């Protein structure tokens, strides 16, 4: 499943967003993607933030019918990224988790500069080049039989890419909400935001 922006974005490079919404949410006790924030699910909220930041398409990695599913099970987030990159038609992909309710479009725009990058102390969100070299690398590690079900990390991918580390002025906006108590505390502090709605194609 993917969403397209209602209007074209003015950017030298083309960016798609990959929303990582396939986690088990075991500590949360319910699906993080379906939590409600100001009348929208976290999945919709994250899509809207990505589009408002400057992405022209949103692809959703989620192991459920109608979404982009992992080709190999139990390989962690890299399997989701590998599957989504194949469906992206942009030069770069902004990879976002679905559990950062404080994240704002302005927080993401420094990443949309046409290079592999991430913010210091946070592996997500990050920007990856959508090249055959990257797709081949991910295919190799995801399908490697010697991993025996082990998951490689996004941090390892960023190291392989020699991605640039940036500094953010708002590190608190990148906090994950992994349990319901944290979610309740953080979500109450977030004002209603008017972000551009995206349409489903």
Automatic annotation (TrEMBL):
Full protein name: Molybdenum cofactor guanylyltransferase
A GO biological-process term: bis(molybdopterin guanine dinucleotide)molybdenum biosynthetic process
Pfam families for the chain: NTP_transf_3
Keyword list, A-Z: Cytoplasm, GTP-binding, Magnesium, Metal-binding, Molybdenum cofactor biosynthesis, Nucleotide-binding, Nucleotidyltransferase, Transferase
Gene Ontology molecular function terms on file: GTP binding; metal ion binding; nucleotidyltransferase activity
InterPro entries, sorted: MobA-like_NTP_Trfase, Molybde_CF_guanTrfase, Nucleotide-diphossugar_trans
PANTHER family according to UniProt: MOLYBDENUM COFACTOR GUANYLYLTRANSFERASE
Positions of transmembrane segments: none
Source organism (scientific name): Rheinheimera riviphila
MobA-like NTP transferase domain segment(s): 17-113
Superkingdom of origin organism: Bacteria
């Amino acid at each position: 499943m993917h969403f397209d922006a209602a209007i074209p974005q003015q950017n030298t490079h083309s960016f798609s967003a990959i929303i990582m919404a396939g986690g088990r949410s075991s500590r949360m006790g319910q699906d993080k993607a379906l939590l409600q924030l100001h009348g929208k699910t976290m999945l919709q909220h994250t899509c809207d933030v990505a589009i408002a930041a400057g992405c022209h398409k949103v692809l959703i990695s989620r192991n459920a019918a109608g979404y982009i599913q992992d080709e190999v099970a139990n390989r962690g987030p890299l399997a989701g990224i590998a599957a989504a990159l194949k469906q992206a038609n942009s030069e770069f992909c902004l990879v976002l988790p679905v559990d950062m309710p404080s994240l704002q479009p302005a927080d993401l725009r420094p990443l949309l500069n046409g290079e592999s990058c991430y913010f210091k102390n946070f592996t997500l969100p990050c920007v990856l080049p959508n090249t055959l070299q990257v797709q081949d690398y991910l295919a190799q590690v995801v399908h490697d039989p010697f991993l025996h079900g082990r998951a490689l990390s996004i941090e390892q991918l960023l190291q392989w890419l020699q991605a640039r580390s940036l500094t953010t002025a708002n590190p608190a906006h990148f906090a994950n909400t992994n349990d319901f108590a944290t979610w309740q505390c953080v979500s109450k502090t977030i004002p209603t935001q008017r972000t551009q709605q995206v349409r489903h194609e």
